Amino acid sequence: MFQVVTDEVEFPDGQVASRDYLRHVGSVAVVPLAGDGPEAEVVLVRQYRHPVGGQLWELPAGLVDGVGESLPEVAARELAEETDLVAGRLDRLLDLHLSPGCSDERIRIFLARDLRPASATHRREFEEATMTVARFRLTDAVKMIFEGEITNAAAVAGLLAADRARSAG
């Protein structure tokens, strides 16, 4: 998933300093959006995250770790694996550097529309086995951001971008 590397960085004044950071394989996330207007719903997953010591509401997401998979293919796979849904339409929403002070990880967030059940349910293992999958009105999910109930950076950015995209038509 990542490796810790150290680079020697030369600054404009000629000084050199070591910088440690995580070199990451990259990731994708998906905002699954069902419906339009004020009744539009998003599908979120609640997953245990050990570094923060608790459960977080997040977008379906995963690593770009499959050989030869394009980013849309990774997004479609993660959507199916985590929510048992497939999208009729998958559009690029935005790209983010999640923590550029310590990692080169870049995440692409997709907007998934025209959702339907996957033809087969997926067997969830490890942390995925305990995930909760739930639907929320998009307007309620945005409120959850500002109430501190959704703190995952990709989820915050993706939900706000989806809300803007929905409002723009």
TrEMBL record:
Pfam families: NUDIX. Residues 20-158 form the Nudix hydrolase domain. InterPro entries: NUDIX_hydrolase-like_dom_sf (IPR015797), NUDIX_hydrolase_dom (IPR000086). Transmembrane segments: none annotated. Its cofactor is Mg(2+). PANTHER family: NUDIX HYDROLASE DOMAIN-CONTAINING PROTEIN, UDP/ADP-SUGAR PYROPHOSPHATASE. This is NUDIX hydrolase.
